[in-house]
Amino acid sequence: MTPAEYDFLRQFLKVRSGLVLSNEKQYLIESRLLPVARKAGVPSIAGLVAKLRDPRESLLADAVVEAMTTNESFFFRDKTPFEHLTQMMLPELLQKRAAQRKIRIWCAAASTGQEPYSIAMCLKEMGSKIAGWRFEIVGTDLSNDVLDRARSGVYTQFEVQRGLPIQMLLKYFTQNGDSWQISSEIRQMVQYRKMNLLDTFAGLGQFDIVFCRNVLIYFDQPTKVDVLSRVSKLLPDDGYLVLGAAETVVGLTDAFRTLPDRRGLYMTNGSAPAAAARPAAVATAAAAAPGQRFAVIGRGSA
Amino acid sequence: MKHCLVVDDSSVIRKVARRILEDMSFTISEAEDGQQALRVCQDSMPDAILLDWNMPVMDGLEFLGKLRLLEGGREPKVVFCTTENDVGHIARAIRAGANEYIMKPFDREIVEAKFHEVGLI
């Protein structure tokens, strides 16, 4: 791949998905995009780039974005956010929303569904404490293929063994040969919608909790500021934001504040002015990559 | 260092598991069947046991039942690791006192995830 082709693809991905690739991700592009190129009937990245320059190739453009942003996802990924959910966010919201008895949760990078389903299982485990309450979990992602998998709720034997306690597997899944399907009761708790975080998401309505994990790390600074600012507008003054382990709001926005001893968890900052963009030592995609358990790029999730 | 006993009649599986667990800073002992494994436990109770199901002489389930009756035998975290991948077997193992369950084939990520799950790492 020539430097010009690499630059074209970087720019293309940045505009289409917000994905920011560092200088040395040629191997990643080749491993992800050569299969897409061959499927489109061209033998090389050069041929693919030539086709992408044609604005009529919008289906191909979608396929390229999906291939570059597909990520591995785990049930109960990183554990801590789900402890924060069951030990802090939900108990507090159950008090604060006692009049409405309704809580809405958004998974902004739902990927293949492990994160929203992990949240749904956490809710189920609360049993009678949430009797009479309405919960809405909305999962969004920019890839239709990924959302179809999420809706099906079918996972491989490998997928159900990463992060999912065996008791939960027995309780919430049914086996079908080598694959496992999460129960319809859990599936019905989550609605999925296709959505690009670069576009407006005001139409989703208001939420009490937003999970936006392992997606900002792939965006550049102004995009992070923009997304965080718009997320803050969907949350009330006592709303929660959950970011990934390598992400922070610090130095990006004043719309959220950190919570002591609750890493990765933020609360909206009342009427504080949003989006005070200052350069800061935030994790870049390049810096965060070694912390990922799999050498992948794109939207992380659950 | 924590001590993990690997019980499997396949020397290949024991070797693979040993490599993964040594990287996770466990000291390893090995046993080829449940009876050998019981002897290891009577001698020095491990912190963790990675346990195959089907083995000659004494299988994993029988070993688990006997282990839990030994003095200190409720302490080790027992993680089954077997090709018996159906719900019935998994449920029996958990009822018998297993802490986690790995369905073969497995990889490093799964072993790490399951050991994390039971608080061993």
Automatic annotation (TrEMBL), chain A:
GO terms for biological process: methylation. GO terms for molecular function: protein-glutamate O-methyltransferase activity. S-adenosyl-L-methionine binds at residues 71, 73, 77, 115, 141, 196-197, 213-214. It holds the Pfam family CheR_N. PROSITE patterns: CHER (PS50123). Methylation of the membrane-bound methyl-accepting chemotaxis proteins (MCP) to form gamma-glutamyl methyl ester residues in MCP. This is Chemotaxis protein methyltransferase. It comes from Methylobrevis albus.
Automatic annotation (TrEMBL), chain B:
Gene3D superfamilies: 3.40.50.2300. Residues 3-119 form the Response regulatory domain. The modification 4-aspartylphosphate is found at residue 52. Keywords: Phosphoprotein. Pfam families: Response_reg. InterPro entries: CheY-like_superfamily (IPR011006), Sig_transdc_resp-reg_receiver (IPR001789), ST_Response_Regulator (IPR052048). GO terms for biological process: phosphorelay signal transduction system. It comes from the Bacteria. SUPFAM superfamilies: CheY-like (SSF52172). PANTHER family: TWO-COMPONENT RESPONSE REGULATOR, TWO-COMPONENT RESPONSE REGULATOR ARR22. This is Response regulator.
